[in-house]
Write a structure and sequence with these properties.
The chain contains four helices and nine strands; from the N terminus they run H-E-E-E-H-E-H-E-E-E-E-H-E. It is an alpha+beta fold and about 210 residues long. The protein has two domains: about 5-80, no CATH class; about 100-210, 2-Layer Sandwich (Alpha-Beta Plaits), CATH 3.30.70. Helix 1 (about 5-20) packs across helix 2. The protein is elongated, with a radius of gyration of 20 Å. About 10% of the residues are buried.
Length: about 210
């Protein structure tokens, strides 16, 4: 599932809800859309644990049997999800409540020959810097030559980097101003996908309720 785009992943849940008989609410207007979202998009190629799916349903869940109803919906929706996606739990939020991610952890598994003292020293150098600038390019349609490049300081988004015997564990801050991208983390560490023993995995997402 890690190779699905964000939009494709949303469609997986939309179709699963339809098959499970979950009546998702739609927006009003000329082109109604289901009120269903994944508040923290997952980069293509990255596995993820503990993602949050938010949806509004056409049900009044205020009766004593609500807990039983949620269990039934959870079981039916779980049966409709493809292999690789697991539904952990369902909770009912207060009307109008929204969720803003403020940090996430990424786990990288370098191949043994790249888990070296040089990598450890590189991590220490990164953390010692007060600023870490990367170049981001925004493209104008399909014309790369018209892309606008800008320098972005991503150091404020790097909360911590830890190394153990097998993994690099990176905690990233997330704010309305943005965050650091997975590819930028790899580049700053001098790594690429060919130097990893397993896919990058996003874990430990933390949320603010607003």
């Amino acid at each position: 599932m890690r190779f699905l785009s964000h939009a494709e992943t949303v469609r997986v849940f939309q179709r699963a809800c339809i098959r499970a008989g979950v009546e998702v609410r739609y927006s009003e207007g000329f082109n109604p859309r289901p009120r269903l979202s994944l508040p923290l998009p997952r980069p293509v190629g990255v596995e993820s644990d503990g993602d949050l799916l938010c949806l509004q349903v056409n049900s009044d869940l205020n009766e004593p049997q609500d807990a039983e109803y949620r269990l039934l919906i959870e079981a039916e929706l779980s049966r409709q999800l493809p292999e690789g996606i697991e539904l952990l739990s369902i909770d009912i939020a207060e009307p109008g409540l929204s969720f803003q991610p403020y940090s996430a952890v990424y786990v990288l598994k370098p191949k043994p020959k790249y888990r070296s003292d040089e990598l450890k020293a590189g991590v220490e150098r990164l953390l010692a810097h007060k600023s870490l600038f990367v170049t981001r390019v925004s493209f104008n349609g399909s014309n790369v030559s018209k892309g606008a490049a800008k320098e972005v300081d991503v150091r404020p988004f790097l909360k911590s980097i830890e190394l153990d015997d097998k993994d690099i564990i990176v905690e990233c801050g997330i704010s309305p101003a943005g965050s650091i991208r997975v590819q930028e983390i790899l580049e700053l560490l001098g790594l690429d996908a060919n130097k990893l023993a397993a896919p990058i995995r996003r874990t430990g997402i933390r949320w603010d309720k607003m």
